[in-house]
Design brief:
- This protein has 355 residues and is of the alpha/beta class.
- The chain contains 14 helices and 13 strands.
- A seven-stranded mixed β-sheet has the order 2-3-5-1-6-7-8, with helices on both faces. A three-stranded mixed β-sheet has the order 4-10-9, with helices on both faces.
- α4 packs antiparallel against α5.
- The chain starts with a strand and ends with a strand.
């Protein structure tokens, strides 16, 4: 299943325009078709020049990029946690995605109705944070209530779970985001079992031009180590079909900023890309950073993980510089790695497995 990113925001901030701009992108449509699952879900390929170069090197019959699923989630309003507007549907949809893009309005276009008085990026962010925090608070409090009934006869595991949830309850009651707090491995394991909304990684997209994004807001985001991008969504939507030359002629960057958004969304969950390549196919694969060679094999086929023997590994750049597998083998560039090897971003791998 592809990585799933939810696009959220208040009404009329540019969510649907962003979704359209993203899903109009056509990357090697013949070999990896863009598809729309339903009116508000689209799957697209992640642009990757490494795939292009490996495909050219081996004259691969097919090339396949990794993918991301984008979900355009209904606009949120204050009181969504209590079911206001499309609140319950909105919050249920967020629960299903892996990460969240907050679309925050910073453009000054009076023709587009603003759901809030004036343009206040931090206020809009606060509304979104508060609503999902309150929804999580309700989830946590319901579980705490159940655990407290069991605590007298409960196990050590129940006591630990209750302790972690009370800690989370205190943060959520203040409208705080759990993902921004420190949790050890066991605490995370307990919290993740509840699919809490405030644990999901997020990226803040300031919708407007660089000139419209207040410097003080940018400084606040940087100070708090927020992942953010500034994109004029309408401009990018209108320029989706422009060639690089046309973009330059209109004073736009050669590459669409939507590509930056796609790449940053991919990084949001600490993912890396590894490759398999040859005359038949060059393909990019997604793997969580820190996973081993057998686990990478399992992404390709479960048998490769279960019956793993070894992996032949070379960095994609070293392979393309050498020009062929024959050359890298002659020069001894290919490494033989075992079960403990941690896959690195950009590795080209070949798994050897037995029955």
């Amino acid at each position: 299943m592809p990585l799933s990113i939810g696009i959220v925001g208040l009404p009329n901030v540019g969510k649907s325009t962003l979704f359209q701009a993203i899903t109009k992108k056509q990357v090697e449509r013949s070999n990896y078709p863009f598809c729309t699952i339903d009116p508000n879900v689209g799957v697209i390929a992640v642009p990757d020049k490494r795939v292009d170069k490996l495909t050219k090197l081996f004259n691969s019959h097919k090339k396949i990029y990794t993918t991301i699923e984008f979900v355009d989630i209904a606009g949120l309003v204050e009181g969504a946690n209590k079911g206001e507007g499309l609140g319950n549907k909105f919050l249920a949809n967020i629960r299903e995605v892996d990460a969240i893009i907050y679309v925050l309005r910073c453009f000054k276009n009076e023709k587009i109705i603003n759901a809030q008085p004036g343009t206040d990026i931090l206020k809009d962010k606060e509304i979104l944070d508060t609503e999902i925090s309150l929804k999580d608070l309700a989830t946590v409090e319901k579980r705490i209530e159940g655990l407290q009934k069991e605590i007298k006869t409960g196990t050590k595991e129940i006591r630990e779970e209750l302790k972690v949830l009370i800690k989370g309850q205190e943060f959520l009651a203040q409208g705080e985001i759990l993902a921004e707090k420190f949790w050890d491995k066991e605490e995370k394991k307990i919290l993740n079992s509840f699919q809490l909304l405030t644990l999901k990684p997020r990226l803040y997209l300031l919708n407007g031009s660089i000139e419209e994004a207040p410097i003080k807001i940018i400084e606040i985001f940087k100070k708090n180590n927020c992942v953010f991008l500034i994109i004029d969504i309408l401009t990018e939507f209108e320029a989706t079909d422009f060639s690089p030359e046309e973009r330059i002629s209109f004073g736009l960057p050669e590459e669409s900023k939507i590509n930056d958004l796609i790449k940053e969304s991919y990084k949001l969950l600490d993912l890396i890309t590894f490759f398999t390549t040859g005359p038949d196919e060059t393909r990019a694969w997604t793997l969580i950073k820190g996973k081993t060679a057998p686990q990478a094999g399992g992404v390709i086929h479960s048998d490769f993980e279960n019956n793993f023997i070894k992996a032949e590994i070379i960095n994609w750049q070293k392979l393309t510089d050498a020009g062929s597998f024959t050359t890298v083998r002659e020069k001894g560039y290919i490494r033989i790695e075992g079960k403990e090897y941690i896959i690195q971003d950009g590795d080209v791998i070949e798994i050897k497995s037995g029955a």
